[in-house]
Design goal:
Length: about 140
């Protein structure tokens, strides 16, 4: 579900069910040619579809963080993830269009990004990881 699909008067009712925030991070620096920006957005969309479609009733997709400086990337994404947990999301999933081997985000429960060859994670890999995170969260509640 997109953030913009939730009306203020619906949020309290939906909040217990929509416990997972999806934070898209395009990973662009502003040096991309137009076709490179298009490719990044398409790759981000492809990964997000593997989460948004099968987990529609539980995930809220926030606006994408398109441009980010390499020097403060981890700090910026970590701050956003921590804030999203602070407003009540139990789980935060970061999805990127770019390889993110150097991204350090302790507040993110999961990070999905292309590998060094540019391949996006398989749908089954993503589904298993999300289900595992949710199941681990249930165990922590008990």
């Amino acid at each position: 579900m997109k953030f913009s699909d939730i009306a203020a008067d619906q949020w309290e009712e939906l909040k217990p069910y929509l416990d997972t925030c999806l934070l898209p991070v395009t990973g662009m620096t502003g040096t991309e040619q137009p076709y490179e920006a298009t490719q990044a957005l398409e790759k981000l969309r492809d990964v997000m579809d593997l989460i948004e479609l099968p987990f529609k009733g539980r995930v809220v997709t926030y606006p994408a963080l398109h441009y980010i400086e390499e020097t403060d990337k981890s700090a910026t994404v970590e701050k956003l993830c921590a804030r999203m947990k602070g407003i009540g999301f139990k789980f935060v999933i970061v999805v990127s269009a770019a390889e993110q081997t150097d991204l350090n985000c302790p507040s993110a429960d999961l990070l999905f990004a292309p590998d060094a060859s540019g391949a996006i994670p398989a749908a089954s890999t993503i589904a298993v990881a999300i289900q595992s995170a949710w199941n681990a969260g249930k165990n922590e509640d008990n």
